[in-house]
Design brief:
globular; 77% helix
Length: 406
C-alpha cells in the first residue's frame, strides 16, 4: 500500500478538483449555449423553450442512471476505475455533441454525456474523504468544489469567443487530457482494506433492505433538492423570469456564470465554517438560510436593472454553496462498502430529480396561471422538504470512516 499523505495539496485532491472543473464545464454548457445552439437548428423561440426543457431533463435523467451505475462500480471495482471510465464517456459524448445536426441526436448525446458526468464529483469526494484525516475532509471537499465550479465561468467566457460546437469540442478535449493526469493517483487505502473481505460491496439494494439506512439515504437526497431548483429553474430559465419581472434582455449564460462564480466562494466559506463550528449540520442550515433569503429577494425584484438581477443570481449561488456540505455528509454517513454508491448516487439523484422539479413548476404555473407564482410556490415546497430533511440529518463532523454496512 502506498504511504498515506495528509496534505490538502496532494495529487488526489488536485486532480479531483480539476476533474470537477471539467465536469461542471460540460454539465452547465448546455444551459449556457441552449439558445444559440437550438436557434442554429431553426427552432422558434417557443420551441427553444420546450426543447430546452426536454434536453436538460433528459441530460439529468442520464445523471440519475449514471449515479446508480458508477456508484455500484465505485464500490465493486474501486474509486479510480469510476473516475477513469466516467470521464472517458462524457469526454467522447461531448466531442460528438459538437457534430449534432438534429434534435434527436442532441437529446441522445446529452443523455450519454449525463451518464458519464454522474461519476466525477461523488467518486472524487469519496476518494479524498478516505485519504485524508477527519479534520481536513471538509476543507478538501470545499477546495474541490470551489475550483470545479469555475468550470461554469470558463464555459461562459469561452462561449463568448467560440462557436457553440467548438465549446463542446473543448470540453471533450479537456476531459481526455485529464485522463493522463489521473494515472499517478493512488486508490483509497480504506477501500483496499475492504476489497478482499466477504462484505457485500456496491449492493445498491442495501439502501432499501434496511429501514434506518433507507431513511438515511432519502434524507441526503431531499436535502439537496433546493440546489437544483435554484440552478435548474431560477437561473437556467432566468431569461423567462426576467421578462415576467419586467427585466428584459437577461442572458441565461451570464446568469449561470454569476451563479457558479458565487457558488465557488460559498463552497469555500461553508467548508471553513463547518471546520470552525465543528459541525457540518450548523453550516448547512446557515447556508440554507442564505439561499432562502436570496430566493425571496429574487421574486421581490420588479423592473430593476440586469446588473442587479445578475447580482441576485450571485447571491443565490453563494447560498447554494451548501451543496458541498450535503455531498460530504453523504460520503461520511455510509460504510466503506457502500460509500461510493452513496456519494455518487445521492448528488445525481438530486440532479436527476430536476425533471420532476420542472414538472412541479409546470403544474404550479398552470394551476396559478402565473409563471412567477408557479416559481415561488415550487420554491416554498422544495425548501420546506429540504429543511425538514436537513433538521433530522446526522451531523457527521469528525466521524471515523473505518466502518462497513451490514
Amino acid at each position: 500500500m502506498n504511504p498515506k499523505s495528509t496534505s490538502l495539496f496532494q495529487l488526489a485532491v488536485i486532480v479531483s478538483a480539476m476533474g470537477f472543473f471539467v465536469d461542471v464545464y460540460d454539465l452547465l454548457l448546455f444551459g449556457i449555449i441552449r439558445r444559440p445552439s437550438l436557434a442554429s437548428m431553426g427552432l422558434s423561440p417557443e420551441e427553444i423553450l420546450s426543447q430546452g426543457e426536454l434536453i436538460i431533463s433528459v441530460q439529468m435523467t442520464g445523471l440519475l442512471l449514471g449515479g446508480i451505475v458508477w456508484g455500484i462500480l465505485g464500490d465493486k471495482k474501486g474509486r479510480l476505475s469510476v473516475l477513469f471510465a466516467s470521464i472517458l464517456l462524457y469526454s467522447l459524448a461531448n466531442i460528438f455533441n459538437g457534430m449534432v445536426a438534429t434534435i434527436p441526436q442532441y437529446v441522445l448525446l446529452r443523455f450519454i454525456a449525463g451518464v458519464g458526468l454522474a461519476g466525477e464529483l461523488g467518486a472524487g469526494i469519496t476518494l479524498v474523504s478516505e485519504l485524508l484525516p477527519a479534520e481536513k475532509r471538509g476543507i478538501a471537499s470545499a477546495m474541490i468544489a470551489s475550483f470545479g465550479i469555475l468550470g461554469a465561468v470558463t464555459a461562459f467566457l469561452l462561449n463568448k469567443v467560440f462557436d457553440w460546437r467548438t465549446c463542446y469540442y473543448i470540453g471533450g478535449a479537456m476531459g481526455l487530457l485529464l485522463l493522463v493526469m489521473r494515472i499517478s493517483v493512488h486508490e483509497s487505502g480504506l477501500y483496499e482494506s475492504v476489497k478482499h473481505t466477504n462484505y457485500q460491496r456496491g449492493n445498491f439494494l442495501m439502501f432499501f433492505n434496511n429501514k434506518e439506512r433507507f431513511i438515511r439515504y432519502m434524507r441526503c437526497i431531499l436535502v439537496g433538492l433546493p440546489a437544483w431548483y435554484v440552478i435548474g429553474v431560477l437561473v437556467t430559465f432566468s431569461d423567462q423570469f426576467g421578462n415576467e419581472l419586467g427585466i428584459p434582455a437577461i442572458d441565461p449564460g451570464k446568469a449561470i456564470m454569476y451563479l457558479y462564480l458565487a457558488i465557488a466562494f460559498g463552497d469555500m466559506t461553508v467548508g471553513f465554517l463547518s471546520q470552525m463550528l465543528k459541525s457540518r449540520k450548523k453550516a448547512l442550515l446557515i447556508f440554507y438560510g442564505i439561499s432562502i433569503l436570496f430566493t425571496t429577494l429574487y421574486f421581490l425584484q420588479r423592473g430593476t436593472s440586469p446588473g442587479n438581477f445578475y447580482l441576485l443570481c450571485g447571491g443565490l449561488g453563494y447560498g447554494t454553496g451548501f451543496t458541498v456540505v450535503y455531498i460530504t455528509m453523504s460520503a461520511e454517513q455510509f460504510g466503506t462498502n457502500l460509500r461510493a454508491s452513496a456519494a455518487i448516487s445521492i448528488p445525481n439523484m438530486v440532479r436527476g430529480a430536476l425533471p420532476l422539479i420542472i414538472l412541479l413548476f409546470k403544474f404550479n404555473r398552470k394551476f396559478f396561471n402565473s409563471y412567477l407564482t408557479g416559481g415561488w410556490v415550487t420554491g416554498v415546497i422544495l425548501f420546506a422538504i429540504g429543511l425538514t430533511a436537513a433538521w433530522f440529518t446526522e451531523d457527521t463532523f469528525g466521524k471515523n470512516l473505518d466502518f462497513v454496512e451490514t
